[in-house]
Design a protein that fits this description.
The complex is a heterodimer of chains A (659) and B (660). With 659 residues, chain A is of the alpha/beta class. Chain A has helices spanning 56-61, 63-72, 88-100, 110-116, 122-131, 138-154, 175-185, 235-255, 260-275, 281-299, 305-323, 348-361, 365-372, 377-387, 409-426, 449-452, 486-489, 518-521, 561-574; strands at residues 3-7, 13-17, 34-35, 40-41, 527-531, 537-541, 550-553, 556-560, 579-581, 586-594, 601-602, 608-615, 618-625, 636-637. Chain A has 19 helices and 14 strands. In chain A, the strands form five sheets. In chain A, strands 3, 4, 8, 9 and 10 form a five-stranded mixed sheet that branches. Chain B has 660 residues and is of the alpha+beta class. Chain B has a five-stranded antiparallel sheet with strand order 7-9-1-4-10, with no helix packed on it. A five-stranded antiparallel sheet of chain B has the order 3-2-5-6-8, with no helix packed on it. A four-stranded mixed sheet of chain B has the order 12-11-14-13, covered by helices on one side. In chain B, helix 12 runs antiparallel to helix 13 (540-556), helix 13 packs across helix 14 (564-581) and helix 14 (564-581) runs parallel beside helix 16 (603-620). Chain B starts with 10 loop residues before the first helix and ends in a 20-residue tail after the last helix. Classes of the chains: A alpha/beta (659), B alpha+beta (660). Chains A and B meet through strand 3, helix 7, helix 11, helix 12 and helix 13 of A and helix 12, helix 13, helix 14, helix 15 and helix 16 of B.
């Protein structure tokens, strides 16, 4: 082994073995990016955040480019305002810090001591005003300070914020206020609060009052305990009468949909049920629930896709029905832990919670009490009586669009198939973003935004589930990867709420036979990044892929077309663009956020292709294998000719690619 | 070479010469690196060959065996083959090896031979003065060399005396004695079965009573005297009969062995093992007059004839005539006078002669001829020294094994010219284990801490391309870079992968996990929490619950309305305890009623899932904590003295039943 030797000034030789280190080949440049597996919508940037750096020589040569760029942002460049860094928060902090500090130089300003009592701050504001003249006069600053501090002194929360229902300061507020945060922030499409994809969209679908999933919780048949409201004198009789009324009402409602004989039969049944003892009632309730929908389903064509759905509901109903009698079982409660007089008090939290729950459980006071855990059933009942005046008796569950007769479903189906064909034939490249429609009491006709944009109505629309413009889903028993599948034909992924025959609704991905759910389930291939054989970085397949197999979703930031225009100018200059046209309204930009497939290079003879698909109401880009791909092969797709010309900006194509 | 054409050139000419010189420098530089690389590869492939050139389809001339036997080959026939071979091997082995001694020749005792008179110069041998050629007692001994044990200095041996015979000393060639003594050795004595330890069999001839030449040096006198007394002037010669592989190299023929004094038991080289191609070296030694061959000229030599016979002969037989040595053999190896071997050598030499071809290598640089070698008929590759046999094989070899150069074949009337230029399109990219490229320091294969997974870079390829019939035309045109065929035959992960966010290399042990492939990367978890925290009109309880719910949904990726009841169930399972511990029970209830409002869960679903949470609460014994929170709420409610929106519960009209 080689040794390095040195003789120190003392004449003492020192040596150390030399270890050679390999030269490592440099890797291509990469700009930082954040990994995501789902698209992320961002707002337009109205201010140029930074002047892009492309090397000194380019900036010097091409000053016009930067000028033009700044013009795109109306001359707004981040950090242009010289004193922009002092904001309200900083200002308050500064004043507080100066107040807390001891007076440094009392001799310099002897008057201030005497003045301090009436107006202790003016010196501070004068000083601040001197340093930041653009922030206003000392008086203005003083007023601003008081304004800012007063608000923060009043309470730590802004006035519009409802106190925490679990906190000690909980207040009694109307239901809308209790639910406000949950209702406004919840994304009905992503099932998340303040989701990344839809939070910026103007039409954020709120809760739709007309749709109720599954069965209501009927009042329990038996008293839940000794303090149950049913034990009140005459209560049982009242309940029975109410129930009869209720059922009669429902029958009336169903009248429109049902044939009259059937209805009468039911009424008889219901009447019979009333006379029977209480023990029979839970089963009757269940039966009734299934009559609501299941009966019809069975009378329908057995091929109807709705049938499975409703059967499922029936199943869940029966399961739930078994649970219902368990209301008597000892359930968790806090009542026992306090003195009897203490839980008589209805605190703000109790009141708010009751209002939130009453809409869910309606008149099932037992369930409400059990859920509230701080009140007895009887107390709840009595409180409900007090509240009754304030609450609208029954929410009208009427649909906005008049429900259609279910028999027409066959026609509906054939019409959809025709529609899909029409859509294909017109072959317009204009694919518009889907926005759930909300036009109460109007059917989805030419005025409906969904129809106008040539999109189907989705489950997120506020229209009736029988809307003609809805996509019916598929009833495939196979893999949904041929044009036999209407979903596949319509370039849609199977909707777990519409297509259940193919297993699209299964949560366990191993139980899904459908191959048309890869994007939503994120069933991407394992990809590996390495320096490309062509240019820069490339992406390589770890395992093999068959033809038309899903490789990965092309994820990125969703930006508007205008924003893409602005960003694209910079990217074109860099000769490196990750922009991908999603539809007429939006572009996917994988520059800042993306997934590994962003490293796939362009080729005119590619092994992958891109397809924009409608996935549960969102357009998403799937990358699929164009031919069988072996492990370790680099992935390419043609940036230019996608089915809908996805890529708006193609960076200057590299010479090597045309060899 | 830059030609110095004219001395009287002007400035411009001088400049052009300078330019020329520079170009030449560049030319040398361009060819230097590939040449060095190929020279290195040559040495490496000599030390540890990767493949045998004779297996290449275009190197047929190097393949000495035919594959004809393969066609008829059957597995079941192996035994029969071996038996047949064994029999064949045994065939030349006759029952007896008969050695007929022709005489002992010592040139120093020339007069004795010439005049057939008693050697008056032989002062030592006073007793003998016969008219007939002096007879020398010769002992024939079979020397069995056994395996050397580790501790032994010399190989242990076993000596069997086979017989004693009287051999004439310097018999005249013209008038040889009519009879010659013979010794027959039965071949059974060479069988190894008797003792496994025997490694080889040597024939040892011991000449006793050798007369001393008169020109013996004086200083050697005392030693010689002593020897005379004790050993009676013993000379020996040894001949290897069977080597350790049990091969007998001896065929019937005349042999000469030089005799040596026993004093130094030097083993005379067994000349028979020399093959013809080493013969070239022998004359050199002869010319130098050094080495063993010198002994044949000066020292005593015993001549004998070796025969394989089926019957033993003993005593005296008729003296056979000397065999004629062929002229070619006379120059090379006197020891080795077997006629059959000679014939073969000649045939090979003639074949070679017929293929002789003049080859000129012309080096090109910038399309200018830069250097030309002399015409030679050498079919060795100039870089590998590999003998290619014919011109086609040579060109094919050059083209395939030296891709850093381009070779073009230019046939000329009496010479084959090969143009060589640098291959600009040579792809010198590394094709080995990519991980080794980043191993720092390199060569850590044996100094790692423990076993680690390594990438597999072995590929088994089965490729049966259609081969065009060999023709010289394929070398006339330089290859077009055909990109279709550039596709590598191997597929798989023969490159170094990097982590997508850090660009750090992925080591083989990390290959199987899909890094950066998860649905909820840590930054996104943080991001969603921060985004919720940013709201000013959402209280802390709501925020906390929303964060928990978001992380839960992000992790599991629920896709449809129909999965929400399951999502709630899983949420309670995973985070129910946390919800209770963080005092978020009512927020969760509100969240559930919100889901109900969105039509994502039924009232029954809400009820049953809340019951599940109750079960958890019962188990968790967090009753106290919830109770204390409730108490705090009540205390605050009383303390605030705020007129409630709705009047508090008045005492019940009916008698309240007892609490359960």
């Amino acid at each position: 082994m080689k040794k390095a030797e040195i003789t120190t000034s003392d004449g003492e030789p020192q040596s150390k073995p030399i270890r050679m280190i390999n030269a490592v080949t440099p890797i291509p440049t990469m700009y930082t990016w954040a990994p995501i597996q789902q698209n992320f919508m961002v707002e337009d940037e109205t201010v140029l955040h930074n002047i892009p750096y492309m090397g000194d020589e380019i900036l010097e040569q091409d000053g016009a480019f930067i000028e033009e760029l700044i013009k795109n942002y109306d001359g707004k460049v981040h950090g242009d305002e010289s004193s922009g860094f002092i904001d309200d928060e900083l200002f308050v902090e500064l004043v507080d810090a100066l107040l807390a500090a001891p007076v440094e130089d009392p001799k310099k300003d002897p008057k201030s001591k005497t003045e301090k009592a009436p107006d202790p701050f003016i010196g501070i504001f004068q000083a601040i005003s001197a340093v930041f003249p653009d922030k206003g006069s000392p008086e203005e600053l003083k007023d601003k300070y008081f304004e800012l501090t007063d608000r923060s002194h009043l309470s730590t929360l802004p006035p519009e914020c409802t106190p925490n229902i679990d906190g000690p300061k909980a207040q009694s507020v109307p239901r809308e206020q209790t639910m406000h945060s949950f209702h406004t922030l919840f994304c009905r499409r992503c099932f998340k609060y303040d989701c990344f994809l839809h939070r910026l969209q103007a039409s954020h679908p709120g809760p739709s009052s007309q749709k109720r999933k599954g069965p209501d919780l009927k009042p329990f048949a038996e008293p839940c305990g000794t303090s149950c409201y049913m034990n009140l004198d005459g209560m049982k009789e009242k309940l029975v009468a109410e129930k009869a009324n209720e059922e009669a009402e429902e029958k009336e409602k169903n009248e429109k949909e049902k044939e009259k004989e059937k209805e009468k039969q039911e009424q008889e049944k219901a009447a019979n049920g009333e006379e029977k003892d209480d023990k029979m009632k839970p089963s009757k309730v269940r039966k009734h629930g299934s009559l609501d929908s299941g009966n019809e389903a069975s009378s329908e064509d057995s091929n109807d896709s709705m049938k499975t759905k409703e059967l499922k509901r029936c199943n869940s109903k029966t399961e739930a029905g078994k649970e219902q009698p368990s209301s008597n079982s000892s359930c968790f409660s806090l009542i026992g832990s306090v003195a009897p007089e203490d839980h008589l008090e209805w605190t703000g939290a109790d009141q708010s919670l009751f209002r939130a729950l009453q809409k869910v459980f309606l008149n099932n006071f037992c369930a409400i009490a059990q859920t509230m855990i701080t009140k007895t059933c009887l107390q709840v009942y009595e409180f409900a009586q007090k509240e009754a005046a304030d609450i609208p008796s029954e929410e009208s569950l009427k649909d906005h669009t008049p429900p259609r007769k279910k028999k027409k479903k066959h026609r509906l189906w054939s019409m959809h198939c025709r529609k899909i064909q029409l859509k294909k034939d017109s072959s317009s490249n204009h694919v518009y973003n889907f926005v759930p429609c909300d036009h109460p009491n109007q059917p989805c006709d030419q005025n409906c935004p969904c129809v106008g944009a040539q999109n189907f109505c989705e489950k997120f629309c506020q229209c009736s589930s029988d809307c003609q413009n809805r996509f019916p889903g598929c009833r495939c028993k196979a893999q949904c990867n041929t044009k036999q599948c209407p979903c596949y034909l319509a370039v849609r992924e199977c909707d777990p709420d519409l297509c259940q025959m193919c297993g699209a609704d299964q949560f366990d991905t191993t139980k899904i036979t459908c191959r048309n759910v890869s994007v939503q389930r994120g069933q991407h291939k394992h990809l590996l990044m390495a320096p490309s054989d062509v240019a820069g970085w490339g992406i390589f397949l770890k395992e093999s892929a068959q033809k038309n197999e899903f490789i990965s979703e092309y994820c990125g930031e969703i930006i508007s077309q205008d924003e893409a225009d602005r960003r694209g100018k910079v990217y074109d200059k860099y000769m490196c663009s990750f922009l991908f046209n999603l539809n007429n309204d939006f572009v996917v930009d994988a520059t800042r956020k993306g997934n590994k497939i962003r490293f796939a290079n362009h080729s005119i003879n590619p092994n992958c292709y891109a397809k924009v698909m409608m996935v549960n109401g969102d357009h998403r880009i799937g990358i699929f294998a164009k031919r069988a791909i072996l492990p370790g092969e680099e992935l390419f797709f043609d940036y230019r000719y996608g089915p809908t010309e996805q890529l708006k900006f193609v960076g200057i194509e590299r010479e090597m690619e045309f060899l | 070479m830059p030609p110095k054409k004219r001395d009287k050139d002007s400035d411009s000419a001088a400049k052009s010469v300078q330019m020329d010189q520079m170009n030449h420098e560049l030319f040398l530089q361009a060819f230097e690196k590939p040449t060095q690389i190929y020279r290195f590869l040559k040495t490496r492939s000599q030390l540890s060959p990767i493949f045998l050139p004779r297996t290449l389809s275009y190197m047929r001339s190097r393949m000495s065996r035919t594959h004809k036997a393969r066609k008829e080959f059957k597995v079941n026939g192996i035994l029969a083959q071996v038996v047949a071979r064994k029999k064949k091997e045994a065939a030349p082995m006759a029952d007896f090896m008969t050695i007929t001694f022709l005489g002992v020749y010592d040139k120093k005792l020339e007069p004795a031979r010439c005049f057939r008179t008693p050697d008056q110069q032989d002062e030592n041998n006073a007793a003998s003065a016969p008219a007939a050629p002096e007879l020398i007692k010769l002992e024939t001994i079979l020397h069995k060399v056994c395996h050397k044990k580790r501790k032994d200095v010399t190989s242990p041996g076993l000596q069997v005396v086979l017989g004693e015979s009287q051999v004439p000393l310097n018999p005249s060639e013209e008038h040889p004695p009519p009879q010659a003594p013979t010794v027959s050795i039965p071949t059974e004595s060479f069988t190894r079965a008797s003792s496994n330890m025997v490694k080889s069999f040597n024939l040892m001839l011991k000449a006793l009573d050798m007369p001393q030449p008169n020109n013996d040096t004086e200083n050697a006198e005392p030693a010689a005297k002593r020897r005379r007394r004790e050993d009676a002037n013993v000379y020996t010669a040894e001949l290897l009969l069977f080597d350790k592989n049990n091969h007998c190299n001896l065929v019937a023929g005349d042999y000469e062995l030089s005799l040596k004094k026993l004093e130094a038991p030097v083993r005379i080289p067994k000349g028979r093992v020399n093959t013809w191609d080493k013969a070239m070296e022998v004359p050199v030694e002869l010319n130098k007059g050094s080495g063993q061959l010198e002994l044949f000229r000066t020292g005593p030599v015993i001549k004998f004839r070796l025969n394989w016979a089926s019957e033993p002969s003993s005593g005296m037989v008729e003296r056979p005539r000397m065999l004629e040595a062929s002229p070619s053999e006379s120059t090379t190896d006197k020891e080795n006078s077997t006629p059959s071997a000679d014939g073969q050598n000649n045939v090979v030499a003639k074949k070679k002669e017929a293929q002789k071809m003049h080859i000129v290598y012309q080096f090109l640089y910038n399309n200018n001829s830069r250097q030309q070698t002399e015409a030679c008929d050498d079919l060795h590759c100039p870089w590998c020294s590999l003998h290619c046999g014919n011109l086609y094989a040579l060109l094919k070899h050059l083209k395939l094994n030296h891709p850093r150069f381009c070779f073009t074949y230019v046939p000329l009337p009496d010479v084959a010219r090969i143009d060589i230029c640098i291959n600009e399109c040579f792809d010198g990219s590394y094709a080995g284990n990519a991980i080794d490229m980043i191993a720092q320091p390199p060569g850590l294969a044996f100094s790692r801490d423990g076993p680690v997974r390594r990438t597999c870079i072995t590929n088994v390829l089965v490729c049966r391309p259609k081969r065009p019939t060999p023709s010289m035309a394929e070398f006339l045109e330089p290859d077009d870079p055909d990109f279709e065929n550039q596709r590598s035959y191997t597929t798989g992960h023969n490159r170094l992968y990097h982590h997508t966010t850090t660009c750090l290399p992925i080591f083989p042990k990390e290959m199987d996990e899909d890094s950066e492939g998860e649905n909820d990367p840590p930054w996104l978890q943080k991001k969603t929490m921060m985004m919720i925290d940013e709201f000013t009109d959402v209280n802390e309880g709501e925020k906390e619950l929303m964060k928990m719910w978001n992380l839960h949904v992000m992790k599991h990726g629920y896709v449809g309305d129909c999965q929400i009841p399951l999502a709630v169930e899983m949420f309670i399972e995973a985070k129910g305890e946390e919800v209770l511990a963080k005092n978020l029970y009512r927020n969760f209830v509100v969240h559930m009623s919100s889901l109900f409002d969105f039509g994502l869960i039924s009232a029954v679903g809400v009820y049953t899932s809340l019951q599940k949470l109750h079960e958890l609460a019962n188990r968790q014994e967090c009753k106290m904590e919830l109770a204390s929170c409730w108490k705090a709420q009540r205390d605050h409610w009383h303390a605030c003295q705020k007129p409630p929106v709705l009047s508090p519960n008045p005492p019940t009209t009916t008698a309240a039943p007892e609490k359960n």
